[in-house]
Amino acid sequence: MKKLILFFSTLLMLTSLTAQKATLSGIVKDAANGETIVGAYIILKDSISKSNPNGAITNASGFYSITVEKGSYLLTVNYLGYKQITETINITSNQKKNFEIELSVILADEVEVRGQAADKNVTGADVGKMEMKIETIKAMPAFMGEVDVIRSIQLLPGIQSGSEGNSGFYVRGGNADQNLVLLDEAPVYNPGHLFGFFSIFNADAVKSIEVIKSGMPANYGSRLASIIDVYQKEGNMKNYELDGGIGVIFSRLTVQGPVKKNKASFIVSGRRTYIDWLVQPFLKNTSPLKGAKFYFYDLNGKCNIIINDKHRLYIGGYYGDDVYGFKSQNGNINSVFAWGNGAASVRWNYIISPKLFLNTSGTFSDYKFKTEMKQGVYNFAISSGVRDYALKSELTFLPNPNHNVKMGAHYTFHTFFPSNFEIEAGQDNYLTFPKSKPFYANELAIYANDEWDIVNWLKISYGLRYSHFSHVGAFTRYKLDENKQVIDSIDYKSGEMIKMYNYPEPRFSARFLIDSLTSIKASYTFNCQYLHQISLATISLPTDVWMPSTSLVKPQTGHQVSLGVFRNFMNNMLEAYIDIYYKNMNNLTEYQDGMDLSSFQLNSDQRLTQGKGYSYGVEFFLQKNIGKFTGFIGYTLSFTKRNFPELNNGEWFWAKYDRRHDVSISLNYEIIRNKLSVSAVWVFASGNTMTIPVGYYFFNGDMMTEYSDRNAYRMQPYHRLDLSVNWNIVKRKHFETGLNFSIYNVYNRKNPFFIFYETTTNFDINAQTPVFEMTTKAYKMSLFPIIPSINWNFKIK
User: Fold this and answer.
1) Quick one: which of 273, 137, 142 has its CA closest to 745?
2) DSSP label at 14?
3) What is the pLDDT of residues 257-282, one digit of tens each?
4) What's the chain's Rg over C-alpha atoms?
């Protein structure tokens, strides 16, 4: 009886405490177009004392929720570049309150808005998370007149480009495949156009970009190094709008508007290169480029439907293709390289209650590559690809301002298409190598993560992700002898389990507040990656093959620790941090040395080898976001090594993308507000490592080349200056137009793209004294000289 009384007394007390609180929740939107705002701050302060603030930040759907004691509060809504909303609100019960915020047109307002929320750099527990504003990206110098999202991300500390003009990137010593690129929650396996020189993201269709390179919360996974989370715009809910631009090699057009005002909207955006159309009429018939194909295009689309106050639906998609080909002057040789990405997503948002938010999404992703070469009667083709179907459901629980709990499940069905080779010689002679059968795999993750503001000086984010991966049939496993000859095989039926992996992945990060302007942040993450990208080249190319973990290829795993000091200066006008990290990686995957064409008759995973690696370094970052003069400076000092028992005689070697020093400076100055601005970007990086020939010898009468240790030498350092001018010629209520002038590589630096070698011999055995001399010279190939460009932009609304 006493226990029963105690139970009901406790229940009554909890009910009483709950009854003394109420929840304010809602959606924050842009007043001009109805787009939801991601990352807006909603702050409640006691209306009398103006103290003890409670706050919330809007999520990817613009939703916020704050639970506070009942009473009167001073409410503010802040977002960079928008007017601040301030009002007094009396909270006596659960309330729903939506906000529409307007763009700021006065510099002082911008300073006030920024000053209220700028301490996020110091107060947040997310150690390696950075946001890139699309407005900042558009202000940077453009390569050939085209603004590029990935190229802008490469300027951040700890993120390095692969090579000159390449949109492939490497984060804190990780491989290119260790970055998960998401577009509206759908994975993108090859985020590059033109062999990686441009990214697939059309800046006119992008709403937000978030980068996570350490302290990854449990709701993200599947990769070791980083998350690039990109969301497309939702479409103007209020007015029709036409945006576009015409550049040197690109044109783009975006159309958006309401299907039903304030209830449903759409956006469609496309772009295409046309340098092939412009050049061909001026080429002579004898030119090797006559008849060459050289273009890419992409198309984005999205529909946004507000079903009612609780339910919202997003339907989006992307498709892009690259086609490059050439013909010899006599037409005897013809080759075509083609690859493309497709992605689609359906997202359903459900506001279950003021404290519960559900996001459920279904996604589809498809990447394919094919190369065809014809010479006379001989035809050669190679193809590969990967396809995903996925379903994810995530519940966000906001019990009070001190907790932000996320829990969910994510399932993906993978189909991998390894490299298939076909050779045809005349009409009656057709040879097809044994076609590599697809690899099928299931990947499932369940997770929970809580961001807990324990006391004013201590905030933690902790979580656990439990991942499962299984390689399943249909599949035929070949058994090999010691000479790698097939001696037997095992056939697995459709859906039959072949190999299974399970990993718990703990995540933890903490923020220790020293004072209102200074904090120390630390994080530890363990990540597991079940996918591998295998490359024969030294840079990320569309020919790279994606493979799953199998009984022969183990999942990649990685531990990362990070410790940083974060500090704001001059009333939060300047943000700075110093971050130290160490990363340990296992089961990295490469092709075996000496692989030849005959090895393609085996299972694709039987020609791979695995090893380990580590990376450590320190990053420095200083940023100014307020005023006419803005920009940032980033510097990274890092060391990255690899070890494979079957490569380099089992000795440790520097990674191909090991960079000792990496510097980025991005500056912008607004000469006339909203009218004329200038930008500059300067980058410097230590040269890539390389393996070089160091000698020759004869073996059984054949001349053999002796090479240095793997990646034992470095190319020259890379550095470049870019400049741009943005001139908004006309800016009226219904029409805007302007010009962008850019100069890429201003001082015409001949940066090395790759090094090739040429050997000459002087051999005379009939001379009185026999002569045998060999001379090898190295030649540097540079890709881009100084490139000026102009781009005309317009907007009709």
Assistant:
1) 142
2) H
3) 999 999 999 999 999 988 777 766 76
4) 29
